[in-house]
Amino acid sequence: MSRVARTYVASEGWLFIAAMIASGFVAKFYFGLLAALPLWLLALLVAYLYRDPVREIPASPLGVVSPADAEVLVIENVYDEYLKRNAISVRLRMHRMGSYVTRAPIEGKIVQRWHTPAYSEGDAKKMALDRYAMQIQTDENDDVVLLMGVAHHALKPVFYHQSGERIGQGERCGLIRFGGYLELLLPANSRVQVSEGDRVLAGSDILASLIRGNATETTINMEVEK
User: Fold this and answer.
1) Count of domains in the chain?
2) pLDDT tens, 115-128?
């Protein structure tokens, strides 16, 4: 069971919402209703952006679900610098007006986490983003790395879990304020089930499936769902 309450607004947004509502009442008292309306409308906008929709998790133990409401940007074969292996990369861009809540792509144990500051040496391709990565390992020793990139350290993701804790498939695992970029590094023999340009929902849409066994395939195995 998730440790985070199943609310319609993420807890991180309530302080901002309360501040806007309170400011609206102060503005109404001193300046009238017209002065309060923009603040109350802003509170509604914040509530919308921090919304935490309940999602139906698919009955697919081997499925890798989307960690965010996002668009699939790139699917490619890469070298996973974190786990020193060949991998399939699925890169995502969060929707501008999508939910900020992130979800775990698979069920398993959080093995370790990394933080790589922007402008790191030798990484010109992604150096404009602060990167936060998390390794999740299933009970069958399949490893998935969830990478989150944000434009500034002040916008660093919120994590609900620490290394060593277990997490469920599709469970709320954190939040990225104002959105960002995500990347999943999957075992090289995974079967990808989306295409570049697809729009996916956090926790309910399957991006790929893990393959059991000792396969050594290192090319993208794509099965596009119609």
Assistant:
1) 2
2) 888 754 444 444 46
Domain extent, residue 25, equals 11-49
What's the CA gap between 212 and 224, in Å, rounded? 20
DSSP characters over 133-198? EEEEE-TT--EEEEEEEESSGGGPPEES--TT-EE-TT-EEEE-TT--EEEEEEETT-EE---TT-
Structure tokens at 72: 């699939």
User: Does residue 127 sit in the same domain as residue 41?
Assistant: no
My answer on whether 45 and 86 are in the same domain is: no
**pLDDT greater than 60 at residue 3:** no
Residue by residue, what is the 3-state secondary structure of 55-119? CCCCCCCCEEECCCCEEEEEEEEEEECCCCEEEEEEEEEECCCCCCEEECCCCEEEEEEEEECCC
Same domain, 39 and 110: no
The predicted-structure confidence for 43-58, as pLDDT tens digits, reads as follows 998 888 888 888 889 9
99 and 138 part of one domain: yes
